[in-house]
Amino acid sequence: MIDAPASDAPVVVDIRKLWTVFHSPEGDQVVHRDLDLSIRRGEVLSLVGGSGTGKTVLLRQILGLEHPSRGEVTVLGQRPGQLGARDAAKVGMLFQHGALFSAFSVLENIAFPLRELRLLPDDLIRDAALVKLQMVGLKPEHANRSPSDLSGGMIKRVALARALIMDAPLLLLDEPTAGLDPAASDSFCDLLRSLHRELGLTVVMVTHDLDTLFDLSTRIAVLADQRVIVSGRPREVIAYEHPFIQDYFLGGRGKRAMEALHETPAGDTPAER
Ligand SMILES: Nc1ncnc2c1ncn2[C@@H]1O[C@H](COP(=O)(O)OP(=O)(O)OP(=O)(O)O)[C@@H](O)[C@H]1O
Asked: Phi and psi for 68 in degrees, rounded to 5?
């Protein structure tokens, strides 16, 4: 189980008065309006919200792939995207569906961000990639396989190893368990939980899967009405009155997840804290 960090842990991601506006011939689309969010070291912060509320865009802004129209995003005190390749050492990202290079082997995929930096000799890069391969529960004999020979769960693990190759203290997860069957999903959550503990990671996650959400989150932030309407422990969030929250958590699917939560002894899940 994941313990929430102390409330005075240092801030890793700080988002202040953020606006995201997309312009098109049909007019402007305001995705985020005056959005504030701070994420502290050791948190597993899950972003939930309806389709199109800007969860993925927010992850991309934290990663530095996109920039806000107004306001500020800082990661460890600096704006992402200003440091170029050095940003990769601060933020690792697990993209939805893994996004592996099909022409590369498993090990080449894992090593890719490190190789791009051109700072280390090939044998050291290979050794670092092999360490990460084992860290995500894969075996050295998987190293030379092609992504097309892997199961969905293994693809996620390779993508996670690649996200960890730079030893970044911040990990972004976009739908980490999407497309996995329940057993593979549980086992991937177990892996994320143990890596979070062993590596002292801060995690920002987008997920639509309520089991994953309740299993891993130390805090949930709900995006609606172009901002974070509430953030807190799962129970606090569920108690907040808003149509999206009633629908999302208290609809059929949500009720089942909540029942599972109630069956767990108090204090045993992140949701209870
Ligand atoms: N580069 C872009 N140019 C124009 N519009 C964009 C761009 N990127 C995202 N959008 C729009 O911004 C909105 C938010 O997109 P985003 O992918 O972040 O939503 P989301 O909350 O992750 O949704 P989902 O849960 O469906 O994945 C959507 O309406 C999307 O069409």
From this structure: -65, 155
